Amino acid sequence: MNKKLIIGNWKMNMNESDSYTFFDEIKKNNNHFVHEFAIIPPAPLIISIKKYLKKNNINNWVKIGIQNFYPKDKGAFTGEISIKMFEDNTLDYLLVGHSERRLFFNENNQFAIEKALYALKNSNAKIVFIFGETLEQRKKGNLENIIKEFLEKLISEITFEDLERFIFAYEPIWSIGTGKIPTIKEIEEIFLIIKEILKSKFKGKDVNISKLIYGGSVNEVNYKLFLNSNLIDGLLIGGVALESHKFISILKNE
Ligand code: PEP
Questions:
Q1: Residue 1 has pLDDT above 80, yes or no
Q2: How do 5-9 and 234-237 pair as beta strands?
Q3: Strand ranges (DSSP E) for 171-210?
Q4: CA–CA separation, 180 and 238 (whole Å)
Q5: Ligand 1 in contact with 177 (CB < 6 A)?
Q6: Does 32 participate in catalysis according to the annotation?
């Protein structure tokens, strides 16, 4: 199996000591990892986790990202987090457009795109642009429109070289945390639509420099279904990323 990218999003879970225990397990098992990975902890833990990783000499290969940020360097934005608060290159991945941000904090495609464009200019991190449909939208069958809605606008603002910084994460909203998953064929259809849109914008260029990953109810049993597809470059994992033994089993491709 090719090396894939596995991203664990801890959401608003874990505290400092839970996270140290998690990374101790990662360190013990890393010789057997088949896949590359990143962890996206809650923002207030990032600096102490970074120090812990350094102390344990695992800072070079454990990648860390942030779940949310505000697209400004600094200023009067009470409660918000700027990526400039982190030392240069501290953040390897930036999540943008997660359905929980959209649902609970009214973030829309326009704001997600603003964040992505800000991140392109103001960091070296990879941008994980998340999108997906509700059950209602799925029933109406307008998945192509949902993709076009963000992708055409986003790519009208970026160069081909920028594309390498993007990871497009398809997360059907009805699948997140529900145990329900789409078929591989359905995911592949979505990814082929994305590739077609990218190809028509960046004519003659190899659009595979951006990654396409899947998220939604991935677990330590079903993950291989997804990773066996040549079109799926990796996974975005919520619940199962909180349990080190399950997450590690996926990284080992057991
Ligand atoms: C998520 O929220 O990004 C996610 C994929 O969650 P889960 O794996 O728990 O469905």
A1: no
A2: parallel
A3: none
A4: 14
A5: yes
A6: no
Concatenated DSSP letters of 141-169:
T-HHHHHHHHHHHHHTTS-HHHHTTEEEE
Cα separation, 115 vs 129, in Å, equals 10
Look over the chain and give the mean of its residue pLDDT values, rounded to a whole number.
96
Where does residue 65 rank: exposed (0-12), middle (13-18), buried (19+ CB within 10 A)? buried
Give whole-number Cα distances, 87 to 38, 62, 82, 148, in Å.
Answer: 18, 16, 11, 35
CA dihedral 156, 210, 47, 235 (to 10 degrees): 120
Q: Biggest alpha carbon distance in the chain?
A: 52
Region 194-209 average pLDDT: 96
What are the tens digits of pLDDT across the range 4-28? Answer: 999 999 999 999 999 999 999 999 9
From the CB of 94, is ligand 1 less than 6 Å away?
no
Domain edges within the chain: 5-252
- Contact 40 CB / ligand 1 (< 6 Å): no
**5-252 placed in CATH 1.10.3380.30:** no
| Ligand 1 atom showing the smallest separation from residue 177 Cα | 10
